[in-house]
User: Fold this.
Amino acid sequence: MTSFKQIEANRRNARLSTGPVTDGGKRRSRQNAVRHGLTAETVIEALEDAEDYAAFEMAITADYDAQTAVERELVLRLASLLWRLRRATTIESGLFKIQAKQLLPFRQRRQAYQGRQKIIDSMYRDVIGAEEDMRQRGNDPSGDLDAGSRLTGDTADQSNAVTTHQPADLSARPAEPL
Assistant:
């Protein structure tokens, strides 16, 4: 529970803390809660010009012949909503520009990779085409080159010899110290 002394100390401190006093401080403190300004009801001084908004509002109200107070209020609300919609479009465009700048290096690397892949694919097709030409000319009497021999140049008999080779017994070798 809060003691009487603590309550009195809090009251004394509260009297000293009256918030901003100058006009500049009051303007700054009004912007404390602004994060992005997308839904701000008023003009954002850092991003927008109050005179531009006033001219925009006057142009909208001139287009409509509001007869009653409700109609005038609706026209003013329309001007505010159109202004905020314009703001949202500007913010969205800015975010897309930022994202494009961040994605540019990734896109360049991907395009370079795709270019290298096209070269490799073309070379592979050339090798396959040359092998087909050799078969048609009769230069490959067996006519039985498998996919592995296309890449390495090994014949089927040589590849079987490699698979039957047994590795040396390494268990007799002494263990290395850690």
